[in-house]
Amino acid sequence: MSANIAEMERRREAARMGGGQKRIDAQHAKGKLTARERLDVLLDEDSFEELDTYVEHDCVDFGMESQKIPGDGVVTGSGTINGRLVYVFSQDFTVFGGSLSKRHAEKICKVMDMAMRVGAPVIGLNDSGGARIQEGVASLGGYAEVFQANVLASGVVPQLSLIMGPCAGGAVYSPAMTDFIFMVKDSSYMFVTGPEVVKTVTNEEVTQEELGGAVVHTTKTSVADLALENDIEALLAARDLMGFLPASNQSELPELPTTDPWDRMEDSLDTIIPANANMPYDMHEVIAKVVDEGTFFEIQPEHGANIITGFGRIEGRPVGFVANQPMVLAGVLDINASRKAARFVRFCDAFSIPIVTLVDVPGFLPGTAQEHNGIIKHGAKLLFAYAEATVPKITVITRKAYGGAYDVMASKHLRGDLNYAWPTAEIAVMGAKGAVEIIFRKDRDDPEKIAEKTKEYEDRFANPFVAASRGYIDEVIYPHSTRKRIALGLRKLANKQLENPWKKHDNLPL
Ligand code: HXC
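Structure tokens predicted for Acyl-CoA carboxylase subunit beta:
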């Protein structure tokens, strides 16, 4: 018996050592943790239960039959984050560069299947040289099976990818199909073809970081949601995010006790809107004053910053916030903002997270750059996302709600449940100046008349009462009571019942 146990321990130790001390040291020298060290940070202490520790590849080409390392380059299993179950896989770069063999893929698919069966999130820690070159098509098949599992899990259990090393070629498509991607600055990159191929094909000289590093993907491309300084920060951010998400699309939202009074009044909100309608203010401040303890987890803060998306809590329960940001491009809706918010709204709806929308939007961004890049289709994504969402939707118009953007931003007409406006709201087809220039074009050389008509237009439309008189706004509220109104609304909407007509799936404008 003791010999058997000793054998098990010997094998476990071999698995723990992965590709050996030299490669572990090399990993550390790059500022990276090992696959197992990362799981120690991600999961609650002693909660990790490993599966498939002894799995090995079955490749016999290129001398691989004599190179077998238990676990085959990925550590898989389950554990808890703040006591809540999650399934995990963590690629081990010290074993064949974390490259994906058929067996490695099967291990990932196994934890994904388990997660789906029991209703728990999947967190993937990616650090891999891509397809196991020695295995050829068997590895490609393995990737495709992971992709298939990602797609079936989408909208069923939350999926989070942390990119903590190389992620290149077709391998990028697994994280790309998960709900959120966090990247580590300077040590991770994602691209379909690397700098060498780029140089050969297009003659461009570019570094890995410039082509697909964390900063590029969180500012330019929006492939990734957050860029973190190092492994530990990324893993701690993953723990934080998980605190806002349900275990599955069938699970209750996680609640946290809070001491923040649900009816807390915030008098400073009564004066946050500047007297001049063209002056900005920081919508982050409004969010911070509304959510429990001012805690907000922002998604994609560096991309499309003219719209803010992220999670907060009200009365301890998670809420998705979407808010125009007057500080950036006057809060206008453009392609980036529309795509970013559309994906966020769809995530919230898939996982029954109520959506609070704060509106201060002057319209869609004009220009050939926007039109020729398809603002029509991209703007439609956000419209589509709000219109199909059946979760509780509470909207507060703080200032501008102009034109099509008024409709798009969770208006009453898109089944907004509670649509509030502050007294400073201006709900109109467009701003007074633009409107008067069009309606009174013939008087454009008469500044007095133009000024008079602008004033008349402002008096008539630069307020929430025309919309409120039609019932498009349910109530004009004191800004200081916003948190209380939202909290009450969410309580009342907790048992909201609304279903869309049966369909195989919709045809989102892509
Ligand atoms: C097998 C691999 C490997 C791979 C790395 N290794 N990538 N083994 N298959 N894909 C091994 C190396 O042989 C080495 O083994 C160890 O991992 C570490 O690699 P190094 O090159 O020493 O590390 P580093 O200098 O940090 O460079 C990392 C790297 C580089 C940039 C990832 O290894 C690399 O370019 N690898 C190949 C990447 C690639 O072309 N992959 C296929 C892409 S196509 P030893 O024993 O020396 O430690 C693809 C298609 C997916 O992925 C399609 C899905 C649909």
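The first helix runs from residue 2 to 17.
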